[in-house]
Amino acid sequence: MVESDYAANENKKPCRSPGEITFCIFFILVGGFAYYIALSFTSGTWDSPSIFPRLVSALIVVLSIVTIFRTIKNTVKPSFTSMKDIAKFLLPADVAVLLFMLTVYSVVLPIIHFIPASFLFMYIAMVYLQRGRGLLKSAAISGLALACLVAIFRYIFLVILP
Amino acid sequence: METLSSFLIPILNVKMLLLVLLGTFGGIWVGAIPGLSVTMAASLLISFTFSWDIYDAIALICGVYMGGVYGGGITSILLNIPGAPAAIATGFDGYPLTLKGEAPKALGLACSVSFFGGLLGIIVLLCAAPIISRVALQVAPRDYFLLAMMGILLLTSMGSGDTIKGIIAGALGVLLSMVGMDPATGEMRYTFGNVYLMQGISFVPAMIGLFGVTEGLSQARDVTVAAIKQNVDKIIPSLKLLLKYLPLSLRSALIGIWIGALPGTGGDIAALIAYDAAKRTVKKPSAPFGQGAYEGVIAPESANIAAVGGAFIPMLTLGIPGDAVTAIIIGAFIIHGLRPGPLFMVETPNMFGVIVSCLLIANLAKLIIAMCSIKFFTKVIDVPRAILIPIVIILSVIGTYAIQNSLVDVYWMLGFGVLGYFMRLYGFATAPMVLGLILGPILDSNYRRAMQSVNNDPIMFLRDLVTNPISLILVIFIAYMVVSQTPQWRRFMARVRAKARTNNA
How far is CA B472 from the centre of its chain? Predict the structure, then answer.
């Protein structure tokens, strides 16, 4: 679990994480939208397809509202509010780079196919996370790992790779 | 006498012995790799062993089955990435044990109790199969609905996180499980005319994303964290420790046997229910549940392996598969000219003895192979995060793609991974979401079938819940699960315990 690295304030209430209430509002919107769509499903009987979607989406909305009230009551605002600091908390540099690489990987995977795309992803990610060190070692490990995965999935389990 | 002599067939046949050992070894690895499943391996083996003798094919499949169920717990404990749904509950306390440097001990304990749980499952299969199958046939859709309700209620007590946030995550999982074509009426729910959504959202990509990719992204927040030194001195648990936890292991195994004997349910639900039962019944765990309690590893690992023996009960006695793997084994029988059904054990009495014997050998082989491999497996923890994270992500991609050869599954997996990262950041556990995805269809379809069986009369539905013995027992369990979470109950129990202490003094 990722811990917040903000100290408690004088009243001993912990600080909430930046964007915590926004995240709960996101769940309210998801639940509300799901309930609205569920209204269009066949209904009217106890075994209709809309029963559980409506029940569950209503539960999400209600509990998200409860969570917002609890969060406001039991925590205090974080000490910083600048967008830069919030972004740094949500997406530290390494995570942001990995997410960008995953996005590029998803796009190029069907184009250049699994083996080159995966090798490049692993190699570049390893080199980046090691801050530019271990170029040869990363290439060797990426190649070996990929070879093992291809051997297991393609030749033993007969999975046609993307 | 014939059945007795059939027990000796695999033991006296070197080829069959080797096949069981090979299957167990392969099964452990298959179970450990997320995205590879015992079901997938078993279905491949059916075509592989098409021209083999049926006994040889069964020997290999039994080995893979036994090894695979244990194997799923390895990555769950070491990396918090369950190799199979049945291993999700193992990670609740298994991974915290790894963070404390006790991964070898956790794996050794899991392996040992897995042996005892498997042994009990096989013994019950041997002695009580007909009785259990008769009871299993009485289970109606409303009982499956109640079992799924029990599973959902576990969300309120899962791990050590915020209860309400856990329920939100679980509810979101149930909601997402409704996406796609309604199996009862064919109506499209939440598909928005999109052909990819019509297939629904499979829980396996969600599980791999919410555990594998989420774990990778979460660890990327600080790649400089050094690997936690693991204590490899204590792998094999002491006899004292084993005897201390044996009652819990056997109780959990009994839960696993019953759940496994129900067609359509398996080790995943058994492990969860056993974990919850352990949480409620163990008064002084080695650590708080969710923070590295040994009991939190013992209960699910005993239950999920015992469910293997349970799954064979309806298959051998009635020709009804207990789970996906036994369904595949029935396919193997048909391919080899056998006729599974209520007369199967009468027409082919040898097969029962052969299967029981293969399972026993596989269970023992699993114990030996796994114990010898623990030091090797724990080396994974020593790999620096900068190397491990990219490999885990690519493994997640290929494991997801292998399910249905679909890139859409891969994109779902990555999407769930990113969602899981933010959920974890804000204190929402990801396991309840996966469980919601698994239990949602069971809950929805069985509730509606139960309602249809009483002509949509809610009064009749409620009446059947209390007049049918199996349903009544399950309702009482559920009521207890709900009431025992309330502050009033805890105060009441504290008063009862205080009074008992006063009387004793």
Answer: 25
Q: What are phi and psi of B224, to 5 degrees?
A: -80, -10
Sign of CA dihedral B76, B82, B84, B87: positive
CB contact B268 to A (< 8 Å): no
Cα separation, A17 vs B391, whole angstroms? 30
Stronger pLDDT, B334 or B453, i.e. the higher one? B453
> Does position B397 have pLDDT exceeding 80, yes or no?
yes
The answer to whether residue A75 neighbours chain B at the CB level (below 8 Å) is no
Among B3-12, B143-152, B304-313, top mean pLDDT goes to B304-313
What Å distances lie between residue B22 and A22, B17, B369, B491, CA to CA?
Answer: 52, 9, 10, 54
Considering CB atoms only, which of B167, B185, B405 is closest to A160? B405
Average pLDDT over residues B272-283: 88
Read off the tokens for A131: 């801050």
Tell me whether residues A56 and B36 touch, CB distance under 8 A.
Answer: no
Residue B430's CB is within 10 A of a number of other CB atoms, namely 28
Mean pLDDT of A69-94: 83
Residue of chain B whose alpha carbon sits nearest to that of A127:
B386
ipTM of the complex: 0.89
A147: part of which helix (H) or strand (E)? helix A135-150
Task: pLDDT band for B127, please (50, 70, 90 cuts).
Answer: confident
> How far is it, in rounded angstroms, from Cα B368 to Cα A112?
44
| Domain extents in chain B | 2-382+395-453, 460-505
> In sequence order, which residues have a C-beta less than 8 Å from that of residue B113 and are 6 or more positions away?
B245, B249, B297, B298, B301, B302
Nearest to B16 by CA among B47, B48, B62, B51: B62
For the ranges A103-112, B27-36, B141-150, the maximum mean pLDDT occurs at A103-112
Q: Count CA atoms closer than 13 A to A122's CA, side-chain side.
A: 28
Domain ranges of chain A: 20-89, 91-156
Tokens of A27: 């769940």
CB contact under 8 A, A102 and B414: yes
Looking at residue A7, its pLDDT comes to: 43
Residues 6+ apart with CB under 8 A from B129: B312, B313, B316, B317
Q: What is the pLDDT of residue B94?
A: 93
Query: What is d(CA B88, CA B155) in angstroms, rounded to the nearest whole number?
Result: 13
CB-nearest partner of B407 from A20, A102, A110: A110
Q: What is the pTM of this model?
A: 0.82
**CB contact B178 to A (< 8 Å):** yes
Find chain A residues with C-beta within 8 A of B185's C-beta: 42, 49
Residue A126 contacts B where some CB pair is shorter than 8 Å: yes
Judge: A141–B387 Cβ closer than 8 Å, yes or no. Answer: yes
Cβ of A129 within 8 Å of Cβ of B443? The answer is no
Using the Cβ of A139 and the Cβ atoms of chain B, whether some distance falls under 8 Å is answered with no
Give pLDDT tens digits for B194-245: 888 888 888 888 888 998 899 899 989 988 877 777 777 777 888 888 889 9
Nearest-CA distance B18 → chain A (Å): 19
The residue of chain B nearest to residue A116, with distances taken between CA atoms, is B394
Q: Could you tell me the CA-to-CA distances from B427 to A67, A148, B339, B423 in Å, in that order?
A: 11, 36, 52, 6
